[in-house]
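Recall that a protein's primary structure is simply its ordered list of amino acids. Everything else, from secondary elements to tertiary packing, is in principle encoded there. The following example makes that idea concrete.
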Amino acid sequence: TAYKTAAAKESDGNFQRVGYSYYGDQATGSYTSWPREDMCESKRQGWDPRARPWYAAGATGPKDIIIIADVSGSMSTAGRSELAKKAVMQILDTLTWKDFATVILFNHDVAQVFSEELRPLTDKNRNAMKTWCESQLWNGGGTNFGAPLTKAFEIIERSVSSGSTSMCQKAVMFLTDGEDTSFGSEDNFKTVKENCDKYDVFMFTYSIGADADTSKVKRLACENRGVFYPVPDNADLGD
């Protein structure tokens, strides 16, 4: 491409001069590059460097990611199921071949699991995960936080034992719009924290919808070195 040709001319064989450089700003999503690159209007619309694999890889390094998404009946409200599915796809698109991941869908139990062990995010595996996600039912049943969380730690344990891991940071990304009346005891939170400490897991939680119960998912994140994100209906989880 023209960009690679210009970059090659700017660099030198002894690596004494920078041939090309990308910069993405975490706070604003602004982007600049060297040499200068002009984007056409159609590409600029909705483009965010923070969602690009090169940015995620540079900001976080290799990692193990388990995405847990709520597919209960209430997810049919206000397009929440499509919002969650889009978010899962965007997460997968930020990962690189150095990362390992899988996806768990849950309602009143574990609804579906992509794989029983983490998989490296090669292009082939990424495409397989996205195709699998597209084929699933994203709105049916009740809500049970405990079942998918237990499953996530089982997958982590199995993956570490088999060597199917990046051997680096681990994170659980938990998306829900529901309230689980069966989850909320001190023992529930203690068990999750013990497992997060055992496997060095950070937990990021997302509460989708204006009427979502935020107390439990916020506590899951705060007690396990993560971040809690409230997401209004019709918002963009990619932001």
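The helical segments are 2-10, 41-44, 53-60, 80-94, 123-134, 146-162, 186-199, 215-222. Strands lie at 21-24, 31-34, 63-70, 100-106, 110-113, 119-120, 169-176, 201-208, 228-231.
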